[in-house]
Specification:
The chain contains 5 helices and 9 strands, in the order E-E-H-H-E-E-E-E-E-E-H-E-H-H. Strand 7 and strand 8 form a beta hairpin. The chain is globular and about 50 Å long. The protein is about 30% helix and about 20% strand. It has a 5-stranded antiparallel beta sheet with strand order 8-7-6-3-9, sandwiched between helices. It has a two-stranded antiparallel ribbon with strand order 1-2. It has a two-stranded antiparallel sheet with strand order 4-5. The chain has a domain of about 130 residues. The protein starts with 6 loop residues before the first strand and ends with a helix.
Length: about 190
């Protein structure tokens, strides 16, 4: 694969934490822009790339929308994160990563325990209950995310945008490789 240039993406929806509509990604460089887009907007795309590269199961973090005055069944916003519509008390997906061979949660922010990932997303959503769900296949992920029936398992490989010269799969590969390399280096140190 040829070396990739810096890519500027115009996002169709703002990122959930900072509300960015444009990010500049440097292939394989995990900086604030990469963390924002793959941590708070396109986490499922990176999880799919990690799953495809390693075969490791996809892990979803889901949170429960609170009941009571804060939850009226409409869009629920907490600590800067804009969520999808879902009924009060309902569990819904919040974030996606992969499960490493030693059972850790790996995403754009690196490897940590599943409990740590759950606490992070619980805190981001006003201490809402959080849990992880193992999603072994792209089909499991697609169903869990409630993507429309008939969505192909390769949905995540779509083009970034009409003005991007880089495919999603090619653009994600350096990030997936950097994360796997960092995880393996960390695992070797611990061994």
């Amino acid at each position: 694969m040829p070396e990739l240039a810096t890519v500027t993406l115009n996002l169709s929806h703002p990122t959930c934490r900072k509300g960015l509509t444009q990010v500049t990604l440097r292939p394989g460089l995990i900086d604030d822009q990469a963390i924002e887009v793959f941590g708070f907007s396109m986490c499922a795309l990176l999880a799919c790339a990690l799953h495809e590269e390693t075969g490791w199961p996809i892990l979803g973090v889901e949170t429960q929308l609170p009941t009571g005055r804060k939850a009226n069944g409409s869009r629920f916003s907490v600590r800067g994160i804009r969520r999808r519509r879902r009924p009060a008390g309902c569990w819904g997906w919040s974030h996606v990563g992969v499960q490493t061979p030693c059972g850790r949660f790996l995403d754009i922010q690196g490897a940590r325990t599943c409990a740590e990932a759950q606490r992070e997303w619980s805190a981001l959503e006003n201490d809402a209950p959080a849990r992880t769900v193992v999603l072994s296949t792209f089909t499991d992920l697609r169903r869990w995310m409630k993507l429309p029936f008939g969505t192909r398992n390769s949905w995540w490989k779509r083009d970034w945008s009409s003005d991007s010269p880089v495919s999603v799969a090619d653009g994600l590969a350096p990030f997936a490789s950097a994360l796997v390399d960092a995880y393996q280096a960390q695992a070797n140190v611990a061994a």
